[in-house]
Amino acid sequence: VVLPTGERLDDLRRLRKDNTGYDLKQLFIGAEGTLGVITAAVLRLVPRPRGRQLAWVGVASPAAALALLALAQAHAGSGLVACELVGETVLGFALAHVPGLRRPLEPPPPWSVLLEVASHRGEDDARATVEALLAEALAAGVARDAVLPSSQAQADALWRIRESLSDAQRPEGLSFKHDIAVPLARIPEFIERADACVQALAPGARIACFGHLGDGNLHYNVSQPAGAPAAAFEPLRGAVAEAVHALALALDGTLSAEHGIGQLKREALAATAPPVALALMRRLKATIDPAGIMNPGKVL
Amino acid sequence: VVLPTGERLDDLRRLRKDNTGYDLKQLFIGAEGTLGVITAAVLRLVPRPRGRQLAWVGVASPAAALALLALAQAHAGSGLVACELVGETVLGFALAHVPGLRRPLEPPPPWSVLLEVASHRGEDDARATVEALLAEALAAGVARDAVLPSSQAQADALWRIRESLSDAQRPEGLSFKHDIAVPLARIPEFIERADACVQALAPGARIACFGHLGDGNLHYNVSQPAGAPAAAFEPLRGAVAEAVHALALALDGTLSAEHGIGQLKREALAATAPPVALALMRRLKATIDPAGIMNPGKVL
After folding, report:
1. Positive or negative CA dihedral for A90, A95, A96, A98?
2. For residue B77, what is the DSSP state?
3. Residue A47 has pLDDT above 90, yes or no
4. CA dist., res. B139 & res. B300, Å (int)
5. pTM of the model
6. Residue A46 pLDDT > 90, yes or no?
7. Residues whose CB is less than 8 angstroms from the CB of residue B13 and which lie 6 or more positions away in sequence, other chains included
8. Cβ distance A63 to A113 under 8 Å?
9. Nearest one of A228, A300, A226 to A263, comparing CA atoms
10. pLDDT tens sequence across A206-257
């Protein structure tokens, strides 16, 4: 890290354990450059898994998706490397606007889960694990339907659907983006209550909900009503964000899971962070960057 | 955390992802109470593994132990939950002084590795994984010999040996303790060069070396020569520690992997930490605890 003084703080140790004073690097991780400029990092490499197996699974509800996640963890342990939730609305946007995508399951389930299991033992083991967990999920009524790709091309096509979701919202008009996380068990409650809040504030708005279910992290985006003018929707941006963020916080969650604060959420952070935490952040900023020259106007 | 002002900083979030400003809790983890008093923590629970299998493996050298670790990781992935290195000298201390221990392998290998594999699939899977990795290690000459406990009582007896090592040094007289870590690949070089340093400074001293190989963390302890008076050994304490710590640092390691700084290593930290890091630690201390009332005299 290059500090505001121009000094270089070197903490590039390749150690799993080091207990020599304060863990300084943690202060700069996620500080968005407001305390110093990170110029190098040490990465730990792990062996590439010998096998991977993907599955696209249809479920009835976010609660069913959570039950599927629990089953996947029980079968795959730390081999579960992806568990992505996809709502039918945003999937519909992608199928309508992104060329070359094909619907994975018919009839369309209300929610889909894209899960991937990696195995250090090989392809057969990864596939057997996914087959066993899906057999149990189908028998228990946790999953409605599932498709397993049997080639890399098919697997790539499923991932392409997931990766198209962000762009697919644009042709549907104005979209208010939210990047929330809540404790895993509260995901279904969050979705149900947020949907009700949004419909009350913006009747006809379409919820484009998808995200990293395994992390409790949802991109809970709100697209304008179909066919209506964007200008009529824009004034609702602040009220919708406030309601979505307030609900996430009320459920012990966060209003920024992975995107950070930047300029856009600076006021929201100031309004919602615990005062003791906010005061300590400001004291750290004043101590390390008293002249305020590091990424000014961001975070705090 | 209770801050020096008496204010309570509440950061008890149960989230895997949260990017809202500085990650304040990291400042207090490992600060040894010098910035505030940690009064509560959130723990993430993971399912208890359905099966476990232990093995005590004899190897010829630290380099062979490292090769065994790599094999174990390839076979067990993240299921490898323990990989402890035990030198013959300290094992001999334990067998001589701790009642009820039995030597696991005859003839005694120069080094032993206690490794444990956990499986979310069950006992059979854990045992099959350990048997497969040992078969490969024995065939490749990485392991000399191995014993697999076949009951919980036998497994407990092997762990009891490992857990006796700290106490077993006491009846052998004065012991200088060091808690170092180096990048994994440098463990063999560290042991070889440290042994030479210690023998040059303290001829006849006995190296009680054991630790958490998977973490690159060794308790590299130095017991006085057998039968000699402790008073003749004590004056060497500082020079031996300095040499051991200097070598660890020269190999990109640390002089405190898990035990922290406290009072004992405060001067060593001040003498060896990079000046920019040390100055930043002191600035943080002065900012958060300007009156110096939190665990005074420790760390800095």
Report:
1. positive
2. G
3. no
4. 51
5. 0.93
6. no
7. A252, A253, A254, B42
8. no
9. A300
10. 999 999 999 999 999 999 999 999 999 999 999 999 999 999 999 999 999 9
* Among A residues 57-116, those touching chain B with beta carbons less than 8 Å apart: 73-79
E strand segments, B25-79: 51-59
DSSP code of A193? Answer: H
Mean pLDDT, chain A, integer:
97
- Nearest-CA neighbor of A206 among A192, A191, A225? A225
- pLDDT for position B46: 84
Helices (H) and strands (E) in chain A, counts: 10, 8
- Which residues make Cβ contacts (< 8 Å) with residue A115, sequence separation at least 6? A54, A55, A57, A68, A69, A72, A80, A82, A83, A84, A130
Phi-psi region of B112 (alpha: psi -120 to 50; beta: other; left: phi over 0): beta
B112 beta partners: B58, B86
H or E stretch covering B237: helix B237-250
Q: Which two tokens stand for residue A289?
A: 């960057």
**What are A152's two structure tokens?**
């890399």
CB A17 within 8 A of CB B257: yes
CB B70 within 8 A of CB B138: no
Yes or no, beta carbons of A17 and B217 under 8 Å apart: yes
How close, in Å, is residue B62 to chain A by CA atoms?
Answer: 18
Q: Which amino acid is at A278?
A: L
A183 Cβ under 8 Å from any chain B Cβ? yes
- Residue matched to tokens 């009820």: B100
Contact B281, B291 (CB under 8 A): no
- Please state the ipTM of this predicted complex: 0.93
3-class DSSP assignment, residue A223: strand
On the 0-12 / 13-18 / 19+ scale of CB atoms within 10 A, A74 is middle
Average pLDDT over residues A151-163: 97
Query: Number of Cβ pairs closer than 8 Å across A and B?
Result: 195
**Contacts (Cβ under 8 Å, ≥6 apart) of B91:** B103, B108, B112, B161, B165
Nearest CB to A183 within list B8, B14, B24: B14
**Beta pairing, strands A111-119 & A80-87:** antiparallel
Contact: A23, B26; criterion CB under 8 Å: yes
User: Is-cis flag, bond preceding A107, omega within 30?
Assistant: yes
Cα separation of B155 and A266, whole Å? 55
In the numeric block, which tokens belong to residue A288? 């390390």
Closest CB to A9: pick one of B30, B217, B280: B280
Q: How many residues does chain B have?
A: 300
Q: Dig out the tokens for A187 from the structure.
A: 């995901």
Q: Please answer whether residues B118 and B81 qualify as being in contact, where contact means their C-beta atoms are separated by less than 8 angstroms.
A: yes
A147: helix, coil or strand?
strand
Q: What is the mean pLDDT of chain B?
A: 97
pLDDT at A140: 98
A26 to each of B158, B182, B222, how far by Cα in Å? 38, 20, 34
Q: With bands split at pLDDT 50, 70 and 90, how would you rate the model's confidence at B53?
A: very high
